[in-house]
Amino acid sequence: MLQIEHLTVSIEGKVILRDFSLSIKKGEIACLMGPNGIGKSTICKVLMGDPHYKVEAGSIFYKGEDLVSLDVVERSHKGIYLVSQNPISIEGVTNAEMLRAALESKTGEKSNFFEFNKKAKAICEKLDIPLEFIHRGVNEGMSGGEKKKNELLHLYLLEPDLILLDELDSGLDIDSLKTLSESLSQYKTKEKSILIITHHISILEYLHPDTVHILKNGRIINSGDYNLAKKIEADGFSAYEVCEEETYE
Ligand SMILES: Nc1ncnc2c1ncn2[C@@H]1O[C@H](COP(=O)(O)OP(=O)(O)OP(=O)(O)O)[C@@H](O)[C@H]1O
Ligand SMILES: [Mg+2]
């Protein structure tokens, strides 16, 4: 699904990722952990095509296609979706307006008003969010947790294949975390992959990851399974110093 090799990325002349490599298979749930300010959100933004981030070296392939030359709209059309750590608000544009425009842009066909409303209503019920969200401004005036739920409403309507969850769990209460995680488990098939970025193990108890990676010094310094996340929860990151022998291949 995704193959990142020897990637170097900078912003404002500052190198954030250096020789960063990561592969995610079709159907895989991968988890990326690392200290604050180490470059986890940077990876998400680079994958989505944020033009502020400069790819200095390396390659990114998605479903076998070179991603670096594509813009954010093309990447979205091809099935990549980012739930941002800090979702932005768009005042005066409703969820329905934005999503119908996004669907029409993706499919090239006019979206059916009744079908759209029916599907959006079913998703709101599944996510336990009020139906009025459909006609509310995109994230406008929403609480931190409500914004995360609203982002998942977008996700289920756009039906992506590669889902990037940048701290979905931050700001969610315990019940909401369970509801949203279970909805993602139901959505995920063997054709879809998820990259979870988190500081906490709770979300991983619902969305059991196949692989767990630690990011430090611009690249992955250790990889393992769910047990690695449990070790980090217990011991923190200081136990994982950059060691050439442990470099992730
Ligand atoms: N526009 C910018 N100008 C300068 N530095 C930036 C800019 N944007 C991001 N950075 C820096 O890039 C580094 C990586 O940031 P990033 O948001 O990827 O960290 P993170 O691993 O997601 O951290 P957290 O766990 O706190 O979310 C940080 O040191 C951040 O200050
Ligand atoms: Mg971040």
In short:
The protein is of the alpha/beta class.
Radius of gyration equals 18 Å
Give me the CATH superfamily. Answer: P-loop containing nucleotide triphosphate hydrolases
Instruction: Please bin the fraction of helical residues.
Output: 25-40%
Q: What's the average pLDDT?
A: 93
Q: Kindly give the count of domains.
A: 1
Largest sheet: 6 strands, mixed
Terminal CA distance: 17 Å
Principal-axis shape: globular
Helix count equals 8
Q: How is the CATH topology named?
A: Rossmann fold
Strand order in the sheet with the most strands = 6-9-10-3-11-12
Strand and helix order: EEEHEEHEEHHEHEHEHEEH
What would CATH call the class?
A: Alpha Beta
Beta percentage is 25-35%
Structure characterization notes:
The protein is of the alpha/beta class and 249 residues long. The chain has one domain (2-246): Rossmann fold, CATH 3.40.50.300. The chain has helices at residues 40-48, 72-77, 95-107, 113-127, 144-158, 174-187, 202-206, 226-235; strands at 2-11, 14-24, 29-33, 54-62, 65-66, 80-83, 90-94, 137-138, 162-166, 193-197, 211-216, 219-224. The protein has a 6-stranded mixed β-sheet, sandwiched between helices. A 4-stranded antiparallel β-sheet has the order 2-1-4-5, with helices on one face. A two-stranded antiparallel sheet has the order 7-8. β9 (162-166), α6 and β10 form a beta-alpha-beta unit. α4 crosses α5. The longest helix has 15 residues, at 113-127. It is globular. The model is unreliable at 244-249 (pLDDT under 50). The chain binds adenosine-5'-triphosphate and magnesium ion.
